[in-house]
Amino acid sequence: MKWSRGIPLLLLALTTQAQSESTENSDSLGLSLSVPSACPFTESTLLERVEGEYYRSRLTPDYEQNNGFHIGVRCVKLSNTNGRHTGYAVSYEIQLGIHDPSNDMTLLLSEPNFGSMLAGGKGEDARQFFLNAIRDDVSSAITFYYKNFK
To answer: How many CA atoms lie within 13 A of 112 on its CB side?
Structure first.
């Protein structure tokens, strides 16, 4: 039974090696978000969704890098004619930024347009609807990035 003590150490060593190889093989890509307080979700909640798409694509989000995606969100509360709050309108754009070191500028590509204008209620199901729509468009934007820039 002496060999059974070595198995956990071997598994730990293999896991550590696999994680370091995975990190070495993954690319980093810039990521920035802008979510105002008027939205039915927070910037940190959206960041979790977007980071998930990055990791599924074997990308590491880099919050300091200029080459990458900027996600800008704008939200407005919707009210009926009586002034009762009924939901939200959410508009968002996902733009790929390419840094040009020759003039130290970042060019934001406006085409293709990954974004939308959505309207929904004020409950948890509407909140999830907004977050899932943005996540799905981030996935499409990452696919565009791989097809055209990798």
So the answer is: 11
